[in-house]
Amino acid sequence: MSSSTPVVTYTIIGVTVFFYLLGMIPGFGYALRSMLVFWAPLTYMQPWRLVTVTLVHQGIWHIALNMLALWALGRSLEPLLGRWRFLTLYVLSAVGGSVLTALIAPGSVVAGASGAVWGLLGAMFVIGRHLGANVTAVAVILGLNLLITFLPGSNIAWQAHIGGGLTGALIGFIFARTRAVRQRRSQIWLLVAVAVGLLALLAVPVLIYR
After folding, report:
1. Cross-strand partners of 38
2. Predicted local confidence at residue 148, as pLDDT
3. Cα–Cα distance between 191 and 22 in angstroms, integer?
4. Catalytic residue among 93, 114, 154, 186
5. What is the set of domains in the chain, with CATH numbers?
6. Active site (annotated) includes residue 2
7. pTM here?
8. Which helix (H) or strand (E) covers residue 99, if one does?
């Protein structure tokens, strides 16, 4: 039985805040952020950027809102899914956000955990629907976030949000349909397929924009 304490959620928050504080150190902080942000042209040689984008934020409100959302969602999702599934969801959603950015806006420099957080929202919506729960609140939050994302002058990387949300919804569907113990191997292979598919999509910008 999974622990009710969202250890992974708290750990992600702690690590993210730690890197934010490191990023405030004069001189060193700029170099660190430059190594972690997502920028498609560098990702093929530095693939860690697909995930480390979640560790870089553009200000106190940026990180505060993302970590508040992560805390609120993680308290419900992590005990429901288990620690490793929750971590897989978070990481693959971050990758999904980075991949869609590479496909649609390859020249964009992106920072923040928003793609991963949107993945949690997408998964919660799909899993909630599958379990017959009332997901109205989640739908409202998704709708409001979409509205804010596309507001003129918002300067938000909507590609990362949508990519993370779609990836999270897909993973949520996989989790919802492979809940039985006998389906664990199928679940693992499906998650591997999602990861391989996302990485394969990174080849598309190379073919299109070369």
Report:
1. 110
2. 67
3. 33
4. 114
5. 7-209 (1.20.1540.10)
6. no
7. 0.91
8. helix 83-104
pLDDT value at 1 more than 50: no
* 114 carries an active-site annotation: yes
Tokens standing for residue 83: 């620690």
| Predicted confidence band of residue 24 (pLDDT cuts 50, 70, 90) | very high
| Active-site residue, from 93, 130, 161, 186 | 161
Q: Counting beta carbons within 10 angstroms of the beta carbon of residue 127, is it exposed (0 to 12), middle (13 to 18) or buried (19 or more)?
A: buried
Write out the two tokens for 20.
């934010």
Helix axes 60-81, 114-131, angle to 10 degrees: 30
DSSP 26: T
d(CA 64, CA 181): 37
Residue 3 vs residues 30, 33, 37, 76, 193: alpha-carbon distances, Å: 38, 34, 33, 12, 28
Residue 150 pLDDT:
61
